[in-house]
Design brief:
This is Cysteine-rich receptor-like protein kinase 40. By secondary structure, this protein is of the alpha+beta class. Helices cover 36% and strands 19% of the residues. The chain folds into three domains: 244 residues, 2-Layer Sandwich (Killer Toxin P4, Chain A); 100 residues, Phosphorylase Kinase, domain 1 (2-Layer Sandwich), CATH 3.30.200; 214 residues, Transferase(Phosphotransferase), domain 1 (Orthogonal Bundle).
Length: 653
């Protein structure tokens, strides 16, 4: 038995060596940014006060919003199928109180809760943005402290567990009788190891079936890789909930699905398995030795293959892009689209579906067979688009934020390199802010919302994501607007990945758009987060003026705004459409824009500081220094840009 235990420890250690670990957020689902004042909390309290009744009168599922931007609150309530009205109301009411208690300042929250006495489960969710898209962050978990006993046949148990999972998941995806019953399934199975095992799955009704499947798959990943051997537990995301246990925690369990148990081994086999003879023990010892040796060899091969493949990819600069090389932050592989599917969706890249064109390719609108609208970026052949393609796929697969455009997949068949994004109906910001007619739709409230959203997206890139990324090409044409005019930072083809502790780098390859590049980057190739801050400052001033950067006396908007600031007349650059709006608030943003566009990079604020300034009316903002500007530029013979003025010319890729 001593040798057997030692070998099992070696085997377990070898296997754990190659398993990936997941970041887990324990506790309540409070996340996102903090409310800037008490108005948001008051709006949430007012909306929550009627949420329980609204859920009951709308069939068990209800969502609504209240207030005005930036303190507008969106809330959602849901009771699982088969709920008792009074119990459902109590459950939702309790979770609204818990949310206000545990997440007093968080603008985003979700709580999948249950009443163990009444045995009902419900959801209360709130946010400062509308719902409807899949959200897989953060996870909230709860695990049973008990482990499955050592005498249980774990192989047989997991076979039965997976069988229950498949049947429950299948039933959940098919459930669509009503909005509240959609994506709901509850089941139980008579296991060999235990009398009964109960399982419940539920997605919010506002996401797609594919999104529900992906969300529940992410929940199952925690059990399979992190919590194997526990006797129950739960994992929830904002979009879905999974729980299983050894007792009927969900009393309603309407139309409970019974999953047939796998057959129990014959008694004779059980006896032989539990009390092996001497010959059997010898054979078992040989088998274990073979398994251990093979496992150890496989681990060595895996390590060697990984190192060789990593080195090869570095030498080839990531030349071969395949679906298996790129996975998102939740471990889901990127979808690799067939070229025929792309051609069908875009009607063979029909000119009627063309949305726009840049230096690296053309963007088309497409529609998949399932009705989902997509944006397809077809990179130009023979350009530097190949570098952009690899860069964007490798970065966007690991980024997820509401103010970043979402990459759905890619295609690289033959000489075609194609990126597939979520479709953003209002196209890019430059189509609005620089258009005489459409600019009227950009009220001050909408412009402020866009400016703040861009800032939050950059904070995520610079500080909050698992990667540290410098965009390098921030401009109005690379900001997309969704149906509610929420901004999404796009085009990461020239973005630069930094190490966590890296603050600055140098490059000879100057990539970006003239007029938006910081002087230290353009003149000396010095890249830092402050490079993006500079670009943000230019975009902010464009938003306030409604004019392009190069429209101000040939010197750039930052230079023009600085002169008017020194003269005490900053209001001159304000868009005439905003003359009736609060000038003090607009002038404060001009001040922030000038601070971001200062010549000295060390004097520029961080994007997190900018977000604080935007949200606060009480903080004293420092006075800006002069921005960098002259009136001419040139380009060196080796192809690298050499320019003394970064504010005089705008060119679109």
């Amino acid at each position: 038995m001593g040798k057997f235990s030692a070998l099992m420890i070696i085997l377990a250690s070898s296997l754990l060596f190659v398993l990936q670990t997941l970041d887990v957020v324990n506790g309540a689902g409070c996340y996102g940014s903090l409310a800037s004042n008490s108005s948001y909390a008051q709006n949430r309290k007012n909306l929550f006060s009627t949420l329980a009744n609204k859920v009951l009168t709308n069939g068990g599922f209800y969502n609504a919003s209240l207030g005005q931007y930036p303190n507008r609150i969106y809330a959602l309530g849901l009771c699982a199928r088969g709920y008792d009205p009074k119990v459902c109301s109590n459950c939702v009411e309790r979770l609204t109180l818990e949310t206000q208690r545990d997440c007093p300042n968080s603008m985003d929250s979700f709580v999948w809760g249950s009443d163990e006495e009444e045995r009902v489960s419900c959801l209360v969710r709130s946010s400062n943005h509308s719902f409807g898209s899949l959200e897989l962050s953060p996870p909230v978990i709860g695990m049973s402290p008990d482990h499955i006993g050592p005498l249980i046949n774990m192989t047989l148990f997991m076979l039965q567990w997976e069988s229950t999972v498949n049947r429950t998941l299948e039933a959940a995806l098919k459930a669509s009788n009503s909005s509240a019953n959609k994506y709901y399934s509850a089941s139980y199975a008579e296991f060999t190891a235990f009398p009964n095992v109960y399982m419940l799955m539920q997605c919010t009704p506002d996401i797609s079936s594919q999104g529900c499947k992906q969300c529940l798959g992410a929940c199952l990943k925690y059990f399979r890789e992190q919590f194997r051997g526990r006797t129950g537990g739960m994992v929830s995301f904002p979009s879905c909930f999974l729980r299983w246990d050894l007792y009927t925690f969900q009393g309603a369990f309407v139309n409970l699905t019974r999953v047939p148990a796998l057959p129990r081994p014959p008694p004779a086999q059980e006896k032989e398995s539990s009390i092996p003879d001497k010959k059997g023990r010898s054979m078992l010892w040989v088998i274990i030795m073979i398994v251990v040796v093979l496992t150890f060899i496989n681990v060595l091969v895996f390590i060697g293959f990984y190192k060789v493949n990593t080195r090869r990819r570095k030498l080839n600069n990531g030349k071969n892009v395949s679906g298996a090389e790129y996975s998102d932050s939740d471990g889901q592989f990127m979808l690799r689209y067939d070229l025929d599917m792309i051609l069908s969706a875009t009607d063979d890249f029909s000119p009627e579906n063309k949305l726009g064109q840049g230096g690296f390719g053309t963007v088309y609108k497409g529609k998949l067979l399932n009705g989902k609208e997509i944006a397809v970026k077809r990179l130009a052949r023979g350009s530097e688009g190949g570098i952009e393609f690899k860069n964007e796929v490798s970065l966007l697969t690991r980024l997820q934020h509401k103010n970043l455009v979402k990459l759905l997949g890619f295609c690289n068949e033959g000489d075609e390199e194609i990126l597939v994004y979520e479709f953003v109906p209002h196209s890019s910001l430059d189509r609005f802010i620089f258009d005489e007619e459409k600019r009227s739709f950009l009220t001050w409230e909408v412009r402020f919302k866009i400016i703040e959203g861009i800032a939050r997206g950059l904070v995520y890139l610079h500080e909050d994501s698992q990667l540290k990324i410098i965009h390098r090409d921030l401009k109005a044409s690379n900001i997309l607007l969704d149906a509610e005019m929420n901004p999404k930072v796009a085009d990461f083809g020239t973005a630069r990945l930094f190490d966590t502790d890296e603050t600055r780098a140098e490059t000879k390859r100057i990539a970006g758009t003239r007029g938006y590049m910081a002087p230290e980057y353009l003149n000396h190739g010095q890249i830092s987060a402050k490079s993006d801050v500079y670009s943000f400052g230019v975009v902010l001033l464009e938003m306030i003026s409604g004019q392009r950067n190069n429209s101000f006396e040939g010197e750039g908007i930052a230079a023009f705004a600085w002169k008017r600031w020194v003269e005490g007349r900053p209001d001159i650059i304000i868009d005439p459409l905003l003359v009736q709006k609060p000038s003090n608030e607009i002038i404060k943003l001009i001040q922030i824009g000038l601070l971001c566009a200062q010549q000295n990079a060390t004097k520029r604020p961080t994007m997190s500081t900018v977000v604080v300034w935007l949200a606060s009316e009480a903080i004293t903002i420092p006075s800006p220094k002069a921005p960098a500007f002259t009136v001419s530029h040139s380009q060196s013979e080796d192809g690298t840009t050499s320019m003394s003025n970064v504010l005089t010319e705008l060119s679109c890729r």
